[in-house]
Each structure stands twice: as C-alpha cells, then as structure tokens.
Design brief:
Elements lengths: L1 H17 L3 E4 L13 H11 L4 E4 L2 E2 L5 H14 L6 E4 L4 H6 L7 H16 L3 E4 L7 E5 L12 E4 L3 H9 L3 E4 L7 H10 L9 E9 L3 H25 L11 H7 L2 E4 L1 H15 L3 E5 L7 H14 L17 E4 L4
Parallel strand pairs: 1-2, 1-12, 3-4, 4-7, 7-8, 8-9, 9-10, 9-11, 11-12
Antiparallel strand pairs: 5-6
Helix pairs in contact: 1-2, 1-11, 2-3, 3-5, 6-7
Length: 334
Amino acid sequence: MAQLYDERIALARAVDTAGFHCYHVAEHHCTPLGLAPSPNVLLAALARETRRIRLGPLVSLLPLYEPLRLINEIAMLDHLSHGRLELGVGKGVSPYELRYHGIDPAAADDIFNETLDTLRAAWAAERLTAGGTHTQRYDNVPLPLRPLQRPHPPLWCPTSNPDKAESAARSGMHVVGLGPVERFLACAQRFRAASAGRSSTAMLGMMRQIVVAPSDDEALALVRTVHPRFAANFTALWEAHGNTRPRAVVDLDAALEHGTVIAGASATVHAELARQANAADLNYFALAFAWGGLTFEQSRRSLQLFARGILPARPDTKRLTPHTTPTATAATPA
C-alpha cells in the first residue's frame, strides 16, 4: 500500500506539471476496487506535493460522514491546497459498502440530501443551525473554519439521470456522467438548458478509462491484458453477495465499442474524445490513467503520451475550451 500511495503521488506530480485541470479521487470501502477509503487523507498529501492542479474527491460519499466534521475537513483541505479544492458529492452506488457502515441503502438519498443541505447552511452563515430526520441536528454551532474559496469550493455531481443533471445545473454544480455518450444526450441537453447564463463555466463531462500507446495494436493488447483485474475488482463485492448483475458493466468489447474504455495511439484517442465531446456538447473528460492491472510505468507512459500528443492541441472541437482541459482521475487502484 505504501508503494501504491507513493506511485499515485508521483502521478499527481506528473499531471500537475503536464497542465491537467484537476486530479479526482474515488471513494470506495471494503473492496479491492479502491484503497483510498478516506480521500481527504490522500488529498491532504497531494495538496502539499502539487502546486497548480486542482484536487478533489469524485465523490465524497455523504451518507458516511458526520456533517460537522466534514465541514471542517473541507475548510482545512481548501486552505492546505491554497484554494484548489473541487468537491464531488454523492450517495454511493454500492449497497454493500453502505451496509458495512450501518447505512440502509434505502435511506441513502435522504441522508445525502440532508447532509448537502447542512453543508450549504454552514457555508452561508457564521454559525450552524441545521439537520434533518436522518442526520445530526446542530443548533447555533460556531464555525470558525471557513473555506478559502467563498462561499465554498466548486461542487460536482456524477450522474447519468436527466432529472438529476438538470437539478445539479440549477444549483450551480458541475456534472460528469458514465456509460456510452449516446445514452448521455438527454442529460447533456437538460444540463445545458438549465445552465443558461453560466455555460462558459459549467463543466459537463464523462468519465473514461484510457490507455495511450505508440500504436493502436499495442494499446488494445495492453487493455486486454489489464482489464480482467479491473473487472474482478469491480464485481468483487457484488459477486461475494451472490449478485452477478454488474458483469455486463465490465464487458470489455462493449466498453471499447461504446467508448467508455478508450485505447490507441494519440491520434486515435484524440479523434474519439473529439467525437464524444461534439456528440454531447462536453467540455470535460475525467480520464483514468491508473486502473486495472496497469503498472506504474505503463500508466506513466500513457499519461506522458497523452500530455505530449493530445493535451496541447485539445480534441479537435470548440467544445473543449482551454480552462477545461481533460482531467486525470485517481481511482485507486483498480
């Protein structure tokens, strides 16, 4: 684990130097899919090892946090990073991870909404009076720790649900989606319509696993070698509980066809990102360079090839503006 964390920090320094926009960190619990169950701990280390790149969880699983403690940690991280924090929030997609923490998955939506309401209340006042049916209630609690970014760091919402995408846009949040870009079109349309007036700053993107190599054949061969480990880790908790439903999600041939996994030489990857950006009016990509069975050297080479061959030019589309450069994610480890 120590070696893994050292390697993730080294990759963060590399994307910082290369000029990427943000380094996102996933949160998972009790599963080999991720070894950063406390993203804030890793982000605190990254804040001191980088200088320009923005940093943030994608996402913090709000049902698993005591709100007041999270409010204070957000303020600390924003200052430790000198105002570079980007805050993704979500309820969690794995019922097993929630249950391990004593959370009823059926109540996760309500807990998420109440916790987010408490965060917003804290950012709007010097003292906190908030709470709900499912979460801790606070009465006139002093808040001496304030985020450096006012009133709070930018908020992110991962969703492929059109209703949630529209709601997120109306509340000023950025949105990233999963799955094939063609299935994201309704989300994109609703998000853009609701973001009228802030379209130049509203981030709308997709998460993608990526491998860049000197040739298409080499990249595809490498993906086929390393993907089985990702698939095993992704489905581990589900299959341990007798649920085989997620197997279709990790069908590699389907992922390559739909563009959720992108592998190839720089020109091939460039063209696919441009296609997706234009199809859904995207201005952001959250790209996982370290996943599956990729070694540190393989991830670093892929990242370097992307930085040299794709990042300076951006995908060939007006949709990707200079301030929304493609993003490196640290979904630990797959």
